[in-house]
Amino acid sequence: MATASEHANETADVIVIGSGAAALTAAYTAAAGGLRTVVLEKTAYVGGTSAYSGAAIWLPGNPALLRAGIADTVEQGLEYFTAVVGDRTPAHLQQAYVSTGPELVEFLERDPSVAFTHMPFPDYYDAPGRIDGGRAIFPEPLAAARLADRRAVLRPPIGVDQYGVDQDRETLVGGQALVARLLLALDATGHAELRTGVRMRSVIVRDGRTAGVVVETGGKTFQLLAERGVILAAGGYECDDTLRQRHHGLPGASWTSSAPDSNTGDALAAALEVGAAIDLMDEAWWCPATLFPNGHAAFTLGLRGGVLINEAGERFANESLPYDRLGHAMHEGQAIGITHVPAWLVFDDRFDNLPAISQPVPDPDTFREAGIWRSAGTLPELAELIGVPADALDKTIARFNGFAASGVDEDFQRGEDPFDRFFGAGEGPNPCLIPVERAPFHAVQIVLGDLGTKGGVRTDGDGRVLDTAGNALPGLFAVGNTAASVAGRVYPGPGTPLGSGMVFGYRAARRLLSQLEDGSDRS
User: Fold this and answer.
1) 521, 484, 518: which is closest to 501 by C-alpha?
2) What's the first-to-final CA gap in the chain, in angstroms?
3) Which of 48, 306, 491, 507 could form a disulfide bond with 20, CB atoms 3.0-4.6 angstroms apart?
4) Which residues pair with 464 in a beta bridge?
5) What three-state secondary structure class fits 297?
6) Are strands 136-139 and 116-118 parallel, antiparallel or unpaired?
7) Where are any strands of DSSP class E within 353-493?
């Protein structure tokens, strides 16, 4: 693989900053159309946060859904999306996202390396147009051997990369498969080059339009010029604690994020320097996260048992909520003066591990040694260990156990929604309400995590970066978590971040290709 220093002051048609799903979709689209495309990745690994993900992709009415017999349309998907998001983001942006999904999937699947399938995963809100079984699609698994020498640069799964867990990597699934398939498609175009270890420092502007980027590699700085445009797709700023505090005091911290630690807002800073407008800077793709002994916090979803309690020893939300909604509920506790962060997941001995999905899976003995898994023979003893009022915890558990017996959660309606029941594991009248009654009792600390920041630069329906007056900055595009999310303050369904990032990456590249085809102004 070539190093950037060997290509000082070159010119390409399109420069893509970043190498996650949004970046690779943009690069593939441009290169497949014949544009000389260079992808610049800051780290030694390709894939960004996408490589860590489960790779759900939310695109209503797409061909993979129809093949699976899912009765869905763009119109139904847009009805749902607009009902959930409301007017927090422009209607034309929402329309562009949802309406382009089928076209994107059809385009990507023309390459033999790209294949998608539907798997059930419910939409997150009870709103018109919802599909209870979900409309998310996923990449088909892929044999790692297919990557050949590219295998060395594929970012490992999060368990391997951040926690040092051994994991079978001969068959790629989820985000690993998605990034790998897009890499294979990109290489097959013959018009793209991928360079790792290259950090963008700034955007070059000449005669009022974006002309390229200043980058650094191996301690050397050089310019790479772009004939047609620069697409910023380098993720958010979630792993820079200074930026998190600067932008509205974003809750959480770098160590609670599930993103690679290289996501420090380089692309955002470069866009701001040339006059980009920003939005949603106090938002992220929130989630509960289990604190691990190494100081990281792992994305946790699908709570199958137990109750979440705050510092007062009380429940504060439906524990079976979709992860972003539960994350919001954790944060909102600060407004009423009762800390929900950290919270404790309290469960009984019917579970031999955390009653939730976490990657990686906790090791109870290691957690106990670190003091973040605490056990006791009685609830009062457990309350003392985790620092909550014993009478409050006892009252909370007694009330919850009553709900488990009746099957009705009178406080938070746990188990009434299809998403809740998707993960339900109980055998009583409500599978989401499992009593906490078998000693010893356990508690594991849960913090507020995120899957990346949601705020970024404002863009139009083709991913063009807008200035504070609402005008497009010629030649500059932003997609994925570098851009302010089309979903506003909500997370409508599984795969909204990847789906929207890939759509706008595709639309940005198609915009550049249309300029090539019709000879129009490069704007």
Assistant:
1) 484
2) 32
3) 48
4) 477
5) strand
6) antiparallel
7) 357-358, 373-376, 441-453, 456-457, 464-466, 472-478
Extended beta strands in 185-283, E state: 192-195, 199-206, 209-217, 220-232, 278-279
pLDDT one digit per residue (tens) for the chain, 523 residues? 333 444 457 899 999 999 999 999 999 999 999 999 999 999 999 999 999 999 999 999 999 999 999 999 999 999 999 999 999 999 999 999 999 999 999 999 999 999 999 999 999 999 999 998 899 999 999 999 999 999 999 999 999 999 999 888 899 999 999 999 999 999 999 999 999 999 999 999 999 999 999 999 999 999 999 999 999 999 999 999 999 998 878 888 999 999 999 999 999 999 999 999 999 999 999 999 999 999 999 999 999 999 999 999 999 999 999 999 999 999 887 667 778 999 999 999 999 999 999 989 999 999 999 999 999 999 999 999 999 999 999 999 999 999 999 999 999 999 999 999 999 988 889 999 999 999 999 999 999 999 999 999 999 999 999 999 999 999 999 999 999 999 999 999 999 999 999 999 999 999 999 975 544 554 4
Complete DSSP assignment for 360-381: S---HHHHHHHTSEEEESSHHH
CA distance 252 to 33: 41
Structure-token match 């900053």, residue found = 17
- Please choose, from the candidates 283, 286, 281, the residue with its C-alpha nearest in 3D space to the C-alpha of residue 259: 286
8 A C-beta contact, residue 74 and residue 82 = no
The two tokens of residue 134 are 């979900």
Residues 6+ apart with CB under 8 A from 236: 259, 263, 265, 268, 284, 452, 453, 454, 455, 456, 481, 482
Tokens of 190: 């013959």
DSSP string, 326-362: HHHHHHHGGGGT---SSEEEEEETT-SS-SSEESS--
CA distance 510 to 507: 5
* Cα separations in angstroms, 228 against 63, 269, 439, 476: 31, 21, 66, 9
Distance (Å, whole) CA 329 – CA 323: 10
Angle at 102 between CA 129 and CA 192, to 5 degrees: 140
CB 134 within 8 A of CB 121: yes
Residue 181 CB neighbours (<10 A): 26
